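Instructor's aside before we start: the two examples that follow are unrelated to each other. I chose them only because their records fit on one page, so don't look for a connection. First example below.
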Amino acid sequence: MGIVIRLIVTAVALWVATLLLHGITLDTTSTPKKIGTLLAVAVIFGIVNAVIRPIVKTVGCAFYVLTLGLIALVVNGALFLLTSWIAGKLGLPFHVDGFLTAVLGALIVGAVSWVLNAVIPDRARGQGNDR
């Protein structure tokens, strides 16, 4: 159940990013198609972050130390752009225009996800104590 909650939280965060930034577009007018696209992009985003982020962090460890972690903004933006590219290759109507928009979008998605995860109880995410 926890993965489904996480998927929904990421989809909501992506939706908020599309509302706040004009450079992130969801080119469909149908509400069910928007929801499906956001869920599909959330899956892609999760896979990209689970597979590629650890590799980038390991390879670029020195850059994280030298920049005091600020390189994470660049990495997050690049991963967000990669998510947009993969979504485009899969025929999903989700697009991010430019690197700065990707960095801002990744920041928004991260912040909204953090807030939503703070609000959702641990039991709903599957991390509660079963005593």
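Example two begins here.
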Amino acid sequence: MATKKSNKRLYILLVLIAAVAAAILLLPGCGGRTNKNAQDEAEAATLVKAGAAAPDFTVEMFDGQKLALVDLRGKVVLLNFWATWCPPCRQELARVKSDVIDRFAGRDFVFLPVSRGETREAVAAFREKTGYDFPMGLDPQREVYDRYASNYIPRNFLIDRDGKVVATSVGYEPEEFEALLQRVDTLLNR
């Protein structure tokens, strides 16, 4: 009798784990591009394409200061949209300190991560848990994000010194992220 009861609990636990895993993989707007249809959907959800002027915005930073994109003219900007609940976003953010901030320190470059649709409290808890202390923008109403895209994160927009989008990416793939950082290097060396 005890064996049947423990088998039933194990079965329920396995079903719950499978349901949680499926929910994470199927979260709308988060994740990698696993097939051509998903790539097409991500491209259709991109409102600002490479070659277009980056729409201006003002974002409240985590520390309470306001930052306007127009004030960053003359610098190369990597605008990154992310969320605390998004596994690929967390993978990408894990690389930021060493592969982005430290790599381009002292150069005319700004990494601008903007939390999409989340409260200050959610971002604060995430920062405390991860130990991240680099600047982050808050976009709880998706006012900034909705100027650039309608769905999917993580999402990057590389903006040149003149305010023009020169590259975009959706999802997180290490090779693609490294290629984006190579583009940053190229822009900074011009």
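The chain is about 40% helix and 20% strand.
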